[in-house]
Amino acid sequence: MPRVKCTLSYDGTHFSGYQVQPSSRTVQYEFERALAKLHKGQHIQTRSSGRTDAGVHAVAQISHFDTPIDIPRDKWPIALNGILPEDIAVKDVEPVADDFDARYDAVTKEYRYRVYTGKHPDVFRRNYTYHLPGLLDEEAMKQAASLLLGEHDFTAFCSPKTNVKDKVRTLYEIDIYKQGDEWHFRYVGSGFLYQMVRILTGTILEVGKQKRSPENMTELLKDKKRHLAGPTVSGQGLYLWEVNYS
């Protein structure tokens, strides 16, 4: 059957994550349920570029699936969006080679994290930002980020719950910038370990609060001990922004 690549976005607020889980509402479950309706009850197995945790959002998650249905490319989003719940939207569907793999063919991924620094909680942003009141030291955070670039073993920045043995990844870019009363963190890498972006952000924020030095990043990479790094900040501020295949 022909294979297609699908780009979808979702608001992760009311999902228990991306991957199908028993007795939980997930993005993959809703997506495959919509595909089944479109395929007259036939189950269509999908594979995504990676999982996202509960509360995490996606601007451009990538998934592939095989389908016997011949639908013009511009009609796929219309057909699926008419079935999907309002917190998931298909942005594009395109034909790909039969051996294309949304997960293993990915070359780089980009994640972004939003931190709201206002004095009081913002009820309208509570599901889309992490609230950390007060000032942050921009220069120190950028210095810390620069020490994390390149190929490293990121064991200290990975949840111990992972089953992944090889924790070597490459970070190509980390941008930190302020927009109004928010700080935005942008990460581009070859791949990311379980909760890696949230732990990196939590650790860099401690540098911004002058609770640890920028140079501590080098020590953490060397020591490879998760308990020495910063906290795992909450999922609602995290966005899977882009997945590149070339």
UniProtKB/TrEMBL annotation:
Q: What class of enzyme is it?
A: isomerase
InterPro entries registered for this protein in UniProt: PsdUridine_synth_cat_dom_sf, PsdUridine_synth_TruA, PsdUridine_synth_TruA_a/b_dom, PsdUridine_synth_TruA_C, TruA/RsuA/RluB/E/F_N
Per its record, the protein catalyses: uridine(38/39/40) in tRNA = pseudouridine(38/39/40) in tRNA
- Which Gene3D superfamilies does the record cross-reference, listed alphabetically? Pseudouridine synthase I, catalytic domain, C-terminal subdomain, Pseudouridine synthase I, catalytic domain, N-terminal subdomain
Keyword list, A-Z: Isomerase, tRNA processing
Q: Which residues form the active site?
A: 53
Q: Where is the Pseudouridine synthase I TruA alpha/beta domain?
A: 9-105, 144-246
Single GO MF descriptor: RNA binding
Residue sites binding substrate per the record: 111
Give the E.C. number(s).
5.4.99.12
Per the record, the GO terms for biological process are:
tRNA pseudouridine synthesis
Q: How does it assemble?
A: Homodimer.
Its biological purpose is as follows: Formation of pseudouridine at positions 38, 39 and 40 in the anticodon stem and loop of transfer RNAs.
Q: Which family does it belong to?
A: Belongs to the tRNA pseudouridine synthase TruA family.
Q: What's the protein here called?
A: tRNA pseudouridine synthase A
Question: Which organism was this protein described from?
Answer: Texcoconibacillus texcoconensis
